[in-house]
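subagent[fold] <- orchestrator: predict structure for attached chain, return tokens only, no commentary.
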Amino acid sequence: MTGPRKLYRRLDDWARGLSRLRYALLTGVVVTASVLSVGVLLDATTTVQAVTMGVTMAALYYAFDMNADEA
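subagent[fold] -> orchestrator:
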């Protein structure tokens, strides 16, 4: 299980190295893609909801700086 664990650590380190804006945008894109894919699986129209959720999450992550180191 060291393979998936190493991959996770590398992705986590990469994401934590992103700037505040890039981290928020990445979060928004991931959320939008996730909601759209669930909508496709459920055969529902979720375009507006997906974009709204993605923009909201990006704004919240930028405003509250969720990627900041706790010191």
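orchestrator: received. Logging for downstream: The chain has three helices and no strands. The mean pLDDT is 90.
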